[in-house]
Structure formats: C-alpha cells, structure tokens
Amino acid sequence: MVNKIRTTHVGSLPRTPELLEANKTFAAGEITREKFLEILQNSVDEVVARQHNLGLDIINEGEYGHITSGAVDYGAWWNYTFTRLGGLTMTDTDRWANAEVVRSTPGNIKLTSFPDRRDRAAFNEAYEDPESGIFTGRAKVGNPEFTGPVTYIGQQEVDADVDLLTKALDKVGHNRSDAFVAAIAPGSAARLANKAYDTDEELVQACGQALSHEYKAITDAGFTVQFDAPDLAEAWDQINPEPTVADYQAWIRIRIDALNDAIKDLPKEQTRLHICWGSWHGPHTTDIPFGDIIDEVLRAEVGGFTFEGSSPRHAHEWRVWQDHQLPAGSLIYPGVVCHSTNVVEHPQLVADRITRFAEVVGPENVVASTDCGLGGRLHHQIAWAKLESLVKGAEIASKQLFG
C-alpha cells in the first residue's frame, strides 16, 4: 500500500569531467573499450550511490552509457542511437548549424532544422546574442540520414547499460524494480532525413521495430524502461508554418501507434513515457498546449507518464488532469523541479506542486519527478541541490497527504 510520495527524475544527470574526457578519448580510439568500461562503471557506481543516499526512490545510471562526443553531454539522449541503429549514414552537416528551410503543407507535416524553429525566429536577436543566456551552444554534432532499412545493432551497448546499473545497484542494496533506463522513443529516433522509406509512417514503424530489442533487454533485466519522446510536444515548434492542431494530432498518432506496437509484449508496469517541450533554455512561446495533445498521449499503453509540471511555460497545465481520466493502472510523474532555471525550488513549493497533482488524480498515482534531464543543462551543484529539494518536498507532501 502506498504511504508516501515516491521520487524519481527523468534520466540525464551531470557527468563528471573524467567521464566526459573518457567519452572523447574512447570515441577517438585513444583508450580501449575495457578501459572505458572501467571508468564508466566507477562513474555509474558513484552516481547510483549518490541518488540512493540522497533518498531518491526510483533511480538510474544517469544515462552515462549513452556516449556522446564533445565537452557538453546534453545531446546524448538522442545521439547515442546513431551507433545503435543500422541503416544510418553520417553526413558532414552540423545539425545545430544546419539552416535548411523545410515547409509543411496541410496534411503533410515535415520537420525543419533547429535554426529554423519558430521560437528561434520569434526571438532571433536573443538567440544570436552570445551574452543572452539562451543556452544553445554545443560541440559540432553530426547529422546522419536514414539511407537503408532500420535495424538494431546496439545489443552489446544495451547489455552494457543493464550490466552497469545492475552492478551499481547491488553495491548499495537498491532494488532493480526501483530503477529505470531511458531509451529513445520511435518518433524521436525518426527525426532525421529519410532517404530509405516511402512515408514517414513507414520510417517511424521501422524505428519502433528496431528499438523493441532495446526495450525488451531493459525490462528483461527487471528495470523500467522510459521512452524519451519529446517529439510528441517539442516538434510542434519545428514545423513551419504552424500546422493545424488536427494535423499535428494525426502526426502524433503515428508515433503512439508505433510505440504501442513496439512494446505490446512488455509488462506495462515496467514502462513509462516522457513528454516534454524540449530542454533548451528558450522563451518557448510557440509551444503547443498540453491540452491539445494529451488525448493522443494517453493512448500510449504504458504504466506511467512523465511530463513538465513546473516550467514557467507549462506549470499551469496541471489543470488538464481535472478533465482527463488517467488510464487504469497508470501513474503520473509530474516535474516538480525545473531543468531550465538555476533557481533551486524551496521544498515547500515542491510539496505544494505535488499536492496539487495528488488532489486531482489521487496521491497513490503520483511519483514526483523533474521536468526533464538535468545533465548538460545545469551546473552539477545546482542539479543535485534541486534533487535534494525534490526529496525534501516529497517528504513534506507525504506528511500532508498520508499523515
């Protein structure tokens, strides 16, 4: 029986300088895989122990096994799949500098490049000003294309993810059932140029079929798998001109259908879906309201939904749960600390946010979380302070709700 508000986070946690350096030297072939895995295991041991000792209930390996190059680790949640999916060909184009203009038409949604996003266009001067504080700077990142059938070639890597987390959990005595591993959702994996399939739907389905092997490896190990699907909300800003809500809902439907097909044989209670509006520190005035997409999101046959609940642009949207029934057997994981501000939330504010959700869907259906991943977006001191406030806030809320 639930007698407390449990806590978790979305996945990415700050990497140490040692691990970032090891990522680069391993990618450059300067150290062996064995040496890299030794450094990686030590880092995972540390981040798991830190979460456990802090009092977080549902923890992970910080996404440390999702390797990316460069000094900033933000892009790993997506870039890691470039070595796990077959059918991709790398190009020389820097994704963050690519200003290719792509235009959609009614009933035919196409995603444009990052520099052509509508939020960036509306605040172009702020984005281009190096002193503005809008965090978009990062190392050059390759931009692959789908040029052949999508296959899964990452079995060795996902096995390593599982092994790393298992060993670290055993060292601190944390249950596997209270741990998770993040994996990219089919729709997010498909957000690359398509030169292999006739339709967007075929590509998304192919990505789902390939990634189903990764999902199964995670749940077979006893962990929960979190499907990272910011495309469900974030992609709205990546469509020019702004589409109709109906067209966008149809676009989302393809992605939910592909996910449901990919996870149909997995234990529902070991699955959760992450939705967000992108973790870059921009104005987000062109975000789609949660209420416009929640009906499609709730079609996902998962055990839980994690979403932004404290960002300045979406904190008010807790109200959608007043009008929408949470599917039976599902939980919500609202973000009650924000990834896009350096201000550390007071524990009482965290508690207030938790109780607001609990009063709508029932405290037994709420797990307190973060808006998005904290790695690469916040200084490590601030990220861990936010997680500490999350735990303390959940303790206050638990006393209020359970006595």
From TrEMBL:
Cobalamin-independent methionine synthase MetE C-terminal/archaeal domain span: 6-64, 201-395
A GO molecular function term, named singly, is: zinc ion binding
State any GO BP term from the record. Answer: methionine biosynthetic process
Query: Membrane-spanning residues where?
Result: none
Entry's Pfam families? Meth_synt_2 (PF01717)
Which superkingdom is the protein from? Answer: Bacteria
Q: Which InterPro entries does this entry report, sorted A to Z?
A: Met_Synth_C/arc (IPR002629), UROD/MetE-like_sf (IPR038071)
What EC number(s) does the entry state?
Answer: 2.1.1.14
Task: Give the keywords, sorted.
Answer: Methyltransferase, Transferase
The broad enzyme category this protein falls into is transferase
**Annotated PANTHER family:** METHIONINE SYNTHASE, SYNTHASE, VITAMIN-B12 INDEPENDENT, PUTATIVE (AFU_ORTHOLOGUE AFUA_3G12060)-RELATED
Which named protein is this? Methionine synthase
Species, as recorded: Corynebacterium variabile
